[in-house]
Amino acid sequence: MKTQKVLPIGLTILALTACGNGVINGDGNDATDGTVAQDGAMMSDAASESPSDAAPGGDAGVQSDAGVQSDAEVQSDAEVAQTDCSGITANSSYELCAEGTDRCAGVFTDGSGCVAFCAAAGMVCVARYGGEPGCQQEPTVVLGCYDNNGHTSDWCECGPSGGSPTCEMDPADPPYQMEIDKNSATYTERHNWAVTCYEYAYTAGSTDHMTCDSTYQPDGYRTGTATFSFTNVPRGNYQVTIYSRHTENRNSAGALFYVDGHPNVINQVGPNSTGMVWDIHGTYCLEGNIDVVLDSTVNSGSDAVAIVRLTPSP
Predict the structure, then answer these.
(1) Helix (H, G, I), strand (E, B), or coil: what is residue 98?
(2) Under 8 Å between Cβ of 238 and 175
(3) Higher pLDDT residue, 50 or 187?
């Protein structure tokens, strides 16, 4: 299997070390020990996680053995391919508000959560927002799919649990593992991103990180985007994973990532001792030029990312 990597050797070593023991420093307490920044300045990891950075059909028909199909027959085939959301409508506590190919969306009204809502259709939650009965979505209220937030109702976006069975690869150009690190990403509002302080990039709002990243000049809002652009991706199903630092004061609403337009919120909140973590975003049929975007414009929480990886999936 060939592998495309846009990853410096030094970062690869760090990533392997962190993934192996779950911490960065030798004594297992990377939240307080000093870390040498890129410019040689000594900066504690706790500074990057300081309280000041905490979040507030066919034209003429299709030829078949029996001849040419009619437009009505072509339409019938399209209807068969429609995603089956009937498991949701069968539950009186669930509202089906939108449906399409590989999509069911709606509101639960019994507090059961989006995982249960999507499971009713044999799907998984790919995004969750605030929502009220009557198919009222609150798109600015971004929530984590697995949040146990006590809400009686929320809006759920559901997608297939794995890659598309119709995603046929080209044997002459098979899928292979690809990854891009934070140094090769492109950023909007770069002044709100601390990129060179550690092996991960993160949005921040305090001045604590200016000594290790000369481009970091925060405006206090912690907003911006980080885009990881993959080019010439061979057609196939890929599992997309995100490598990032989990801490106690990471964005409480979760980090919103888009993979080729597919949204999912990843919970990056955890004990400071958790260290670097690989999170699964989902499995998708990808081809050509693919953008993976960390959208930190939806709220003022602190989000993080180090590496985005595409791994071929059956």
Answers:
(1) strand
(2) yes
(3) 187
pLDDT single digits (tens) 70-98: 444 434 443 445 689 999 999 999 999 99
Mind spelling out the 3-state secondary structure of 139-178? EEEEECCCCCCCCCCEEEEEECCCCCCCCCCECCECCCCE
Class of domain 4-55+169-312 as given by CATH: mainly beta
Task: List beta partners, residue 6.
Answer: 180
Structure tokens at 234: 């061979």
- pLDDT of res. 119: 85
Cα–Cα distance, 22 to 163 (Å, whole number):
29
pTM score: 0.58
Cα dihedral sign, 10-13-16-22: negative
Give me the residues paired with residue 98 across strands.
105
CA-closest candidate to residue 105, choices 93, 92, 117, 90? 117
The tokens describing 64, both together, are: 């078949």
Residues of the chain with CATH 2.60.120.260: 4-55+169-312
* pLDDT greater than 70 at residue 192: yes
Check: CB of residue 107 under 8 Å from CB of residue 97.
yes
Share of the chain above pLDDT 90, in %: 51
SS3 11: helix
Residue whose tokens read 């072509």: 74
Sign of the dihedral defined by the CA atoms of residues 249, 11, 22, 291, in that order: positive
**By three-state DSSP, how is residue 67 classified?**
strand
